Amino acid sequence: MTARLAHLVRRAVLPLVRLASLLLAVSFITFMLVASSPIDPVQANVGQAAYATMAPERRAELAERWGADEPLIERYASWLGDALRGDFGESLRFNAPVTDVLAERIAASLGLLACAWVLAGLLGIALGVVAGARAGGLADRAIRAWCYVLSATPAFWLALIALMVFSVCLGWFPVGFAAPIGAAGEVSLAARLHHMALPALVLSLTGIANVALHTREKTIEVLGSDYARFARARGEGEGSIVVRHGVRNLVLPAISLLCAQVGELVGGSVLVEQVFSYPGLGQAAVTAGLGGDAPLLVAIALVTSAAVFAGNACANVLYRVVDPRLQNGGGHLA
Predict the structure, then answer these.
(1) Residues whose CB falls within 8 Å of the CB of residue 204, separated by 6 or more in sequence, listed in order
(2) Distance (Å, rounded) from C-alpha 219 to C-alpha 134?
(3) Distance (Å, whole) CA 334 – CA 322
(4) For 269, what's the count of Cα atoms within 13 Å in the CB-facing half-sphere?
(5) What is the DSSP letter of 135?
(6) What are phi and psi of 172, to 5 degrees?
(7) Which pLDDT does position 333 carry in this prediction?
(8) E strands, the chain, in order
(9) pTM above 0.85, yes or no
(10) What 8-state DSSP symbol labels residue 163?
(11) How does pLDDT run across 208-265, given as a tens digit for each residue?
């Protein structure tokens, strides 16, 4: 009983220790990168024209207020002490508390990432099942070729092409933003979904290829199994075998793979949001980086790191459900 309890405590505490270590390392590295950047936060945030005519005393005052003239270790130690109390500082670019900026931007990004994640799963599983059920056929070759092209295509290029074709040329979707330009008051859910649809679809393409190819291999494996052959001997058709015996054995591995790909979705959202001017964490990260806004950039890095860690943790749990051999320490997947 004692050994079992110690094992459960280890399983519960170790992930928290890893998460804390990850967040500490990410915050320090982000601070170091911002400090090493040639961008002067004072000049970047007051504007070049205003900075050129500003008195040296005023420049020094702003640099002292924003901590731009402090050594890196002192600045980081001061930020870390405040962050442990829940104060992540004030954003230089948005002139607002970092927590307020995060609350506003996270709401937009979560909806976009959730829609992209669901679309990647649904389309990836559907395409993988079709390709696996028609292995070697025309549909299989076409789907595999499309997946290989998607895997080698940058997300920002797909976003630009989609924007030009579906927004500019065809006019099916808005050219950007999360709501109509100049909209006052409450924006309807339908309008928000209309603005989110194209960015979410483009972002989902970054995860479809891996899920489809993985599901294809699993489908071929399932259709070649003993119980599938037994079902054929009883007179069941290929479609019935895939639906009744295949799909339920394919969904969980596909979801575990999707959880492990959260990092790719988060990384792709930075470029997609920038192309579509979508006001999420990705666009805020670009704005903070260009302005040397260390407090906001560090907070965004922490949030995205925690999201990727959570996705990998969910993937590990699902991998153990799929393969019980991992329960006893037979392997670890990160």
Answers:
(1) 115, 116, 117, 119, 120, 123
(2) 10
(3) 15
(4) 32
(5) T
(6) -75, -30
(7) 41
(8) 90-91, 96-97
(9) no
(10) I
(11) 888 899 888 888 888 777 777 777 777 777 777 777 766 767 777 888 888 888 888 8
* Residues 240 and 268 sit within 8 Å (Cβ to Cβ): no
Which is higher by pLDDT, 100 or 250?
100
- The contacts of residue 178 (CB under 8 Å, 6+ apart) are 108, 192, 195, 196, 278, 279, 280
Place of tokens 């004692």: 2
Nearest to 334 by CA among 300, 303, 309: 309
What does the alpha-carbon distance between residue 130 and residue 136 come to, in Å, rounded to a whole number?
Answer: 11
Encode pLDDT of 5-20 as tens digits.
666 667 767 888 888 9
Return the DSSP state at 133.
Answer: H
* Model pLDDT for residues 266-277, shown as the tens digit of each residue: 888 888 988 888
Euclidean distance between CA atoms 136 and 201, whole angstroms:
28
Distance between CA 34 and CA 51 in Å, rounded?
20
Which residues in 186-213 are b (16+ Cβ under 10 Å) and which e? eeeeeeeeebbbbbbbbbbbbbbbbbbb
Residue among 170, 174, 155 nearest 277 (CA): 174
Residue 145 has a pLDDT of: 93
Sign of CA dihedral 177, 183, 189, 190: negative
One-letter amino acid at 268 equals G
Residue listed under structure tokens 């420049």: 59
Structure-block tokens of residue 109: 């990004």
